[in-house]
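Hey,

Quick one before I head out. I ran the complex with fe (ii) ion overnight. Inputs first:
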Amino acid sequence: MDYKQAAEKLSQLLSNKRFRHSLGVSQTAADLAARFGEDIDKAKLAGLLHDCARSIPSNNLLQTAAAFGIVVNDVEYRQPLLLHAPLGACLAQKEYGVTDPHILKAIALHTTGGRNLSNLEKIIYLADFIEPSRDFPGVDKLRSLALDDLDAAMLAAYDQSLHYVIEQGVLIHPATIEGRNYLLLQRQNNSI
Ligand SMILES: [Fe+2]
Ligand SMILES: [Fe+2]
């Protein structure tokens, strides 16, 4: 399935708003890939499909994850919406014919982040935050930071995400903490 066919299929399954968001993430990911010398087509496709599992009703996420053999941790069990990321990778493969493991992993990690991310994984995580329809205090600053320094932008995005999760009073996914710690330690080591 090529990009156009995948977009056509996705447009049937997602709400208009979420489909527009997906196109925004796709274009923003392509721009970041061009800026940092990454594969533009992979970034475009990963961005397009990152939320493809939002087509699964939220009360079916746990069941679908079990069917795909995804190991669900305590946080995901309590907050199954988080599972749309790893499930998105499963659907991208099964329903959209994506075989590239780098694209699949970028989709799987787009909600939580994690340690030692590839540039493509950082690009999809950030594009989800800063695509044109996103509007929150500081989004423009994050947009320019992302074009300048992926790691600095990732740290700012992790911080933003943690603030939000704390404000909402919900559980913090351990992968977000691990990803943030990893980047902070890496930057400290590099500056010694
Ligand atoms: Fe998502
Ligand atoms: Fe998204």
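The chain has a mean pLDDT of 97.

Talk tomorrow,
K.
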